[in-house]
Amino acid sequence: MFKWFVRIAVACAALVAALLGLVALIDTRVGDIPSEAPAYRVTHIAAAHRPDGLDLHLWYPASAGQITLIGQNALFYGFHARRDAVGDGISHPLVLLSHGSGGNAERLGWIGSALASKGIIVAAVNHPGTTSGDSQPSRTVMPWERTEDLSTILDYLQADAPQGMVPDMNRVGALGFSLGGASVLLSAGARLSKDDFIQYCAANAGQDDCGWLAEGGVDFSQIDAPKYERDNRDQRIKAVVAIDPALTRAMRKHSLTRLPPSLVINLGSDGEIPLAMQADGLAAVNPAIEYRTVPGARHFSFLARCSLLGVVMIALAGDDNICSDRGLRDRGEIQAELVQMIGTFLTDRL
Questions:
Q1: Where does 258-297 have alpha helices with state H?
Q2: What Å distances lie between residue 230 and 190, 269, 275, 320, 345, CA to CA?
Q3: CA 116/CA 34 separation, integer angstroms
Q4: Which residues contact 254 (CB under 8 A, 6 or more apart)?
Q5: For residues 254 and 188, what is the distance between their CA atoms, to the nearest angstrom?
Q6: How, if at all, do strands 289-294 and 39-47 pair?
Q7: Closest CA to 308 of 291, 290, 321, 289
Q8: Name one GO molecular function term (predicted).
Q9: Which of 9, 79, 203, 349 has a CB 3.0–4.6 Å from the CB of 109, allowing a cystine?
Q10: What integer pLDDT is reported at residue 248 of this predicted model?
């Protein structure tokens, strides 16, 4: 009996060792620490419309402070930054960053840190009700909460920016992904139509955003029309980048003519982009809107790069595999292209 116990124990130990070895082979790699990196900090700010306030994530130029790896785990790659470093004291353009439904600010650190390295202050929050661990269909149809978040960020940085951080409030842009793409467009002047949204979902029942909202028990007829359709424009925003923006089918065409210079990007080629994110029609309304596509990509290509372990674990979870890049270009290559495209647009217009 004792011999069998020993054999079983040895076999279990070997299995555990093999699993640990496998994880070591396929999880995220730390890599070399770069010689240059921007700063990053998180600070809590008050918000009149949010009883618990907001955690503000900031990426900004700095030359002093230790460079560390932030936000990395076994599933997702992080980014390098000087945590809590003092800013360089030089005036820089400011760009708001808005995550998608169920996303969060830290997972967009790859683009936040890249833009900060180009001399831009980047500011983001986790939008309560539509963020990781707190993603509610009922709150997803309350886009005015998100636009209020973005204006609150601007109010705070205009009045009381952290030490060494000097945002130029005459050079403010906004960058958003998915529902965040809709958020920045609304903050820049686009307006929604409840009736148009209901008609769109009636024609596309069970698909993409409409299906998820319906499964979550959202009664579209009960959407608060005055708030849903209100003007959320913050005229401090002078340029916009929207990647795979949501709600384009519900945006009033006449309101799109008010948008400042804007870059709208769809991830994928024509014919491959889901209807919920198709945004080519926006450019036809306003010549200030540039439209581009990124072939070999898909919606989730904008999210943080994943390890092989992340691909496997998230696939086993049974949901949309936000980590899978099968049949696509390398995610790192796509994101490098996006950094160049977005960075050039923002620096040219701010």
A1: 280-283
A2: 10, 33, 24, 33, 29
A3: 15
A4: none
A5: 14
A6: unpaired
A7: 321
A8: carboxylic ester hydrolase activity
A9: 79
A10: 97
- The secondary structure of 177-194 as a DSSP string is ETHHHHHHHHHHT--B-H
Q: β-strand 91-98 against 237-243: which pairing, if any?
A: unpaired
Assigned fold of 34-349: Rossmann fold (3.40.50)
pTM, 2 dp? 0.91
Q: What is the 3-class SS of 73-97, one letter each residue?
A: CCCECCEEEEECCCCCCCEEEEEEE
Amino acid at the residue 283: A
User: How high is the pLDDT of residue 319?
Assistant: 61
pLDDT, averaged per 10 consecutive residues of the chain (350 residues), comes to: 36 34 48 89 97 98 95 93 97 98 96 98 98 94 98 97 97 98 98 97 92 95 98 98 98 97 97 94 96 97 91 73 90 98 98
* Selection from 56, 208, 206, 222 nearest residue 142 by Cα: 222
DSSP 3-state of 282: helix
Cβ pair 208, 143 in contact under 8 A:
no
Say which amino acid occupies 155. Answer: D
* Count of Cβ atoms closer than 10 Å to residue 215 Cβ: 10
Q: How far apart are CA 309 and CA 255, in angstroms?
A: 44
Question: Do the Cβ atoms of 65 and 39 come closer than 8 Å?
Answer: yes
Tokens of 153: 């960020």
**Structure tokens, 223:** 């959407």
- At residue 113, the 3 state secondary structure works out as helix
Residue 232's nearest CA partner among 200, 269, 185 is 185
111: left (phi over 0), alpha (psi -120 to 50) or beta: alpha
pLDDT at 324: 87
Six-digit token pair at 110? 């790859």
**Three-state secondary structure call for residue 271:** coil
**C-beta of residue 93 within 8 angstroms of C-beta of residue 85:** no
